[in-house]
Design brief:
By secondary structure, this protein is mainly alpha-helical. The protein is 72% helix and 7% strand.
């Protein structure tokens, strides 16, 4: 329950900070938090185990690709939850790098949110 709540708060903060992250309404926000938390706890360990050799060869950098896949799956499964192309320093990032940046921001924000939700 804490994971779902922290994910909902994290998505809310990201949508407030970044204009390209959006959700349709409160129901969509809650559903996106539930789906993203479920994917993090159920799918991520399976993908990490499947791609362990590639992750070892790339010294752990392939785990970023796994994060992007998890986030893309969440935007695909939840209608109304969208992550558009980011513009950083007047450079428009494509879909992959936008999802990569948002997944890094999710990790950063969630580390702060989990401090307050105990």
């Amino acid at each position: 329950m804490k994971t779902i709540l922290s994910m909902i708060v994290t998505i809310f903060i990201l949508a407030w900070l970044i204009p390209s992250v959006s959700y349709g309404g409160w129901i969509t926000l809650i559903l996106a938090g539930i789906v993203l938390a479920a994917l993090e706890t159920l799918v991520r360990p399976v993908l990490k185990l499947l791609f362990l050799p590639i992750n070892v060869i790339t010294l752990g950098l392939f785990s970023w690709v796994i994060n992007v896949v998890i986030l893309w799956l969440a935007t695909y499964l939840v209608p109304g939850f969208q992550i558009g192309n980011l513009v950083l320093f007047q450079v428009t990032l494509n879909r992959f790098f936008s999802l990569l940046t948002v997944s890094m921001l999710i990790s950063l924000i969630q580390s702060f949110v989990r401090i307050f939700i105990k």
